[in-house]
Amino acid sequence: MQREQLAVQRERAILVGCLLPNDGSDPHDPLSELRSLADTAGAICCDQLMQKLSKPNPKTFIGKGKVEELKMMCEVHDAQVVIFDNDLSPSQIGNIEKVIERKVLDRSELILDIFAARARTHEARLQVELAQLEYTYPRLRAMWDHLERIAGGSPVGIGTRGPGEQQLEVDRRIVQRKKAQLKREIKDVQGRKTREVQARNKDFYTVCLVGYTNAGKSTLFNTAIEVSGDGEGGAYADDKLFATLSTRTRKWDLGGGDAVMLSDTVGFVRNLPHHLVASFKATLEEAVHADLLLVVLDVSHPRAEHQYRTVMDVLDEIDATTPKRLLLLNKTDLLTHNADLLVIQQEHPGSIPLSAKTQDGLDAVIDAVRAQARGGTIDLSLQLSCGDGKAIHFLENRANVLERNYEGDTVTMSVRIGKRQLDQLHAMGSTAVIVGEFEDEAKGGWGR
Ligand SMILES: Nc1nc2c(ncn2[C@@H]2O[C@H](COP(=O)(O)OP(=O)(O)OP(=O)(O)O)[C@@H](O)[C@H]2O)c(=O)[nH]1
Ligand SMILES: [Mg+2]
Question: Does 336 have pLDDT greater than 80?
Answer without folding.
Answer: yes
